[in-house]
Automatic annotation (TrEMBL):
Any one of the GO BP annotations: base-excision repair, AP site formation
Binding residues for [4Fe-4S] cluster: 189, 196, 199, 205
Stretches assigned to the HhH-GPD domain: 39-187
Naturally occurring in which organism (per UniProt): Vicingus serpentipes
GO MF assignments: 4 iron, 4 sulfur cluster binding; class I DNA-(apurinic or apyrimidinic site) endonuclease activity; DNA binding; DNA N-glycosylase activity; metal ion binding
Gene3D superfamilies reported for this sequence: Helix-hairpin-Helix base-excision DNA repair enzymes (C-terminal) (1.10.1670.10), Hypothetical protein, domain 2 (1.10.340.30)
Cofactor needs: [4Fe-4S] cluster
Cofactor info, note text: Binds 1 [4Fe-4S] cluster.
Coiled-coil segments on the chain, per record: none
Matching CDD domains: ENDO3c
Protein name, UniProt field: Endonuclease III
rRNA-binding as UniProt keyword: no
Function: DNA repair enzyme that has both DNA N-glycosylase activity and AP-lyase activity. The DNA N-glycosylase activity releases various damaged pyrimidines from DNA by cleaving the N-glycosidic bond, leaving an AP (apurinic/apyrimidinic) site. The AP-lyase activity cleaves the phosphodiester bond 3' to the AP site by a beta-elimination, leaving a 3'-terminal unsaturated sugar and a product with a terminal 5'-phosphate.
Length: 211
DNA sequence: ATCCCGAGGG
DNA sequence: CCCTCTGGAT
């Protein structure tokens, strides 16, 4: 089948199955989302939400977080992965947010990445969710699943994957498609031994029978 | 044991 | 390009 047909089958299937897939991270403003996404690396959303509940009460906006003691932030987030790094990143991020960006979470990918703890994936999440930009955050799931399905043609890097997905997906589908790929990658198309027996989209999977 | 919606540094 | 950071869930 052509690439266009494959994309169409992908969209048809998931827009029926999970029309409203979205992040489970809890936040009430861009600052909180930025914090939550930085914390989410190698960690479930549920656990992030437990931690951010108290964290946001103590540091309601970037200003207070920018003046915070890294040690205190560490205490709030010690139950998630990489608490030392993330505590440093959060305070550093808040400092730049206040001092360089006048307390406004930037919409530009490059500006976002000037903040510690914010790499391309996190920057794309903000651009997409907060600013409705056609940005695709490529994490480990998106990268792997897109390659397996054949939405990307054996992309070698996340950036390559991102560009190909952006080029082929209708703009309005990009944000949901991100979550479709993640959900599929988390529960069915797992890294080690993909559960092809439980998969309901083998009819357009380029790797079915080959993994 | 093995895996989780990464980023920074060498 | 590879290493490290790291706790919790299953």
């Amino acid at each position: 089948m052509t690439k266009k047909e494959r994309y169409q089958l992908f969209i048809d299937h998931f827009s029926k199955k999970s029309p409203t897939a979205e992040t489970e991270l809890e936040y009430t403003n861009p600052y909180e989302l930025l914090v939550a996404v930085i914390l989410s690396a190698q960690c479930t959303d549920k656990r992030v939400n437990i931690v951010t509940k108290d964290l946001f009460r103590r540091f309601p906006e970037a200003q207070s977080l920018s003046e915070a003691d890294v040690e205190e932030v560490f205490e709030y987030i010690r139950s998630i992965s990489y608490p030392n790094n993330k505590a440093k990143h959060l305070v550093g991020m808040a400092k730049i947010l206040v001092n360089e960006f006048n307390n406004v979470v930037p919409s530009d990918i490059d500006d976002l990445q000037k903040m510690p703890g914010v790499g391309r994936k996190t920057a794309n999440v903000i651009a997409s969710v907060v600013y409705n930009k056609p940005a695709m955050a490529v994490d480990t799931h998106v990268f792997r699943v897109a390659n397996r399905l054949g939405l990307t043609n054996n992309a070698k890097t996340p950036l390559e994957s991102e560009k190909e997905l952006i080029k082929n997906l209708p703009e309005e589908v990009i944000p949901v498609a991100h979550h479709w790929l993640i959900l599929h990658g988390r529960y069915i198309c797992v890294a080690r031994k993909p559960k092809c027996g439980e998969c309901d989209i083998t009819h357009f999977c380029k790797s079915f029978g080959k993994v």
